[in-house]
Amino acid sequence: MDGGSGKAKIQMPSILTVTNGTYNLELVWNSKNYDYLIYDGTKYNAAIKEGKSTFNITVPDIAKPLKIVADTVAMSVPHEIEYTLTINLIGNIK
What we know:
The chain is mostly beta strands. It contains no helices and 9 strands.
C-alpha cells in the first residue's frame, strides 16, 4: 500500500474471493476511524469489526494497482486520503 502518512495499514493477508467471475476483496484497516472509501467511482461504507474499519469491495481486475480514496475521521475534521493498493497473490483464490 502506498499513500497517506504511512501510519495506516491493511491487515495482511487480505481475503480475496471470486463469485461468478467477480473478485471481492475484504480490506481490514488497523483503525476504526475510516468511515468510507471510494474505489472505481463506488463509495463503500465501513463495517466496524473487532474495532477495525472493514470494507468489502468489488475489483474488476486484480492485476492492476487499485487507486482508492479513504476517509478518516481520526483528525479534527474528516480527511480523504489517496492510496494505491497492489495485490500479490499468495495461495488459492476461493
